[in-house]
Amino acid sequence: xxxxxxxxxxxxxxxxxxxxxxxxxxxxxxxxxxxxxxxxxxxxxxxxxxxxxxxxxxxxxxxxxxxxxxxxxxxxxxxxxxxxxxxxxxxxxxxxxxxxxxxxxxxxxxxxxxxxxxxxxxxxxxxxxxxxxxxxxxxxxxxxxxxxxxxxxxxxxxxxxxxxxxxxxxxxxxxxxxxxxxxxxxxxxxxxxxxxxxxxxxxxxxxxxxxxxxxxxxxxxxxxxxxxxxxxxxxxxxxxxxxxxxxxxxxxxxxxxxxxxxxxxxxxxxxxxxxxxxxxxxxxxxx
Length: 287
Hints:
This protein is mainly α. It contains 9 helices and 7 strands; from the N terminus they run E-H-H-E-E-H-H-E-E-H-H-E-E-H-H-H. It has helices at about 15-35, 45-70, 80-105, 110-130, 145-165, 170-195, 210-220, 220-235, 240, and strands at about 5, 70, 80, 135, 140, 195-200, 210. The strands form 3 sheets. A 3-stranded antiparallel β-sheet has the order 4-3-7. Helix 4 packs across helix 6. The termini are far apart. The relative contact order is 0.17. It comes from Streptomyces thermocarboxydus.
């Protein structure tokens, strides 16, 4: 029989919390991605990896906070631990691929299309892999049009976020971009959930796996720790907040003192006074 699906069993609490987590992960990830292009090239992989982990952790946390409010009448919902962890790994790895593409090739058209596509597919894969980890007394079916729409929204959101990271216009710019990204990612989630149809079997067999409270609560400690770490790094790095590159330092060679151009005033060329030109005759004189 058709099961009644409710994605808002706690009212607006879970959607709002999910949206805030998506915004937090997006804001920290975008600032770390921007910072990767402002410092030494040797630090770029570390900043890009932290940015990818922040975005992936934020999207994953958003998804499962929203799933806390998802219920189906007539059957309990349990989650498989391995599939849930695999969805987190997919999110971080595929977001990382997209972030590294834009981080090294710049916010150009080809890089944005490739990186946004990979990142968006990673977000969508995380969502549907997490849904595949659900276990209930019934059969889950999806509306193909709604699923395709959720994937398109995910790719558009990822491309817009990576483009915003390449602009480096300051902290407020990234905050605004993260609010838009959080709205798009949360919208992608609920569009995907609108595609779900559950046919309940009505048997007495218990579902395998663990309940959402028993599994997802402790499992969120890792992604939240990543977000806290990224937040500390952002707060204590002024370049991340200001969005400006450090002033270039002059290269100092051994044995040569470093002087700034202000130490020596510009030398004006001295004009040499020239008198009337004397012409000497080369004609031999007669004696």
